[in-house]
Amino acid sequence: MDYLISFLIGGVICALVQILLDRTKLMPGRVMVCLVCGGVILGFAGLYQPFQDFAKAGASVPLLGFGNVLWKGVKEAVDKNGFIGIFMGGFKASAVGISAALVFGYLASLIFDPKMKK
């Protein structure tokens, strides 16, 4: 049942974002920034964790989840290091995910033959 809930919640998030892209004049980069900031705001308000506990990977994998990870990292670093934690917390919390994306992207480029669009 967890897989079904994750699939449905993640699909709904992606469908809403696609509708937003299709129906507005917002550029994809701005929509992505809105999603990350939305995850930060929902994490700050204490609303994202209960949502993530229910939706599991359906809520943690989209960019909303990335924003929430940044919020958690900054919060922990500020509690531990004070003001300087604002600058280092997000990097520490998200470093593994970003590194994995870079490594797997590079490996995929070695396996497949990437080409620029014409």
List the helices and strands and how they pair.
Layout: H1 2-23, H2 28-44, H3 48-55, H4 57-60, H5 63-81, H6 85-111
Helix pairs in contact: 2-5, 5-6
State the gist of this model.
By secondary structure, the protein is an all-alpha fold. It contains 6 helices and no strands.
Note down, in words, how this protein is organized.
The protein has one domain (2-111). It is built from 6 helices and no strands. The chain has helices at 2-23, 28-44, 48-55, 57-60, 63-81, 85-111. Helix 2 (28-44) packs across helix 5. The longest helix is centred in the C-terminal third of the chain and has 27 residues, at 85-111.
Characteristics:
mainly alpha; 6 helices; transmembrane helix; SpoVA; Stage V sporulation protein AE; transmembrane; membrane
Strand count, sense and closure of the main sheet?
A: none
Q: Helix and strand succession?
A: HHHHHH
Q: How much beta, percentage-wise?
A: under 5%
Helix content: over 70%
Low-confidence segments: none
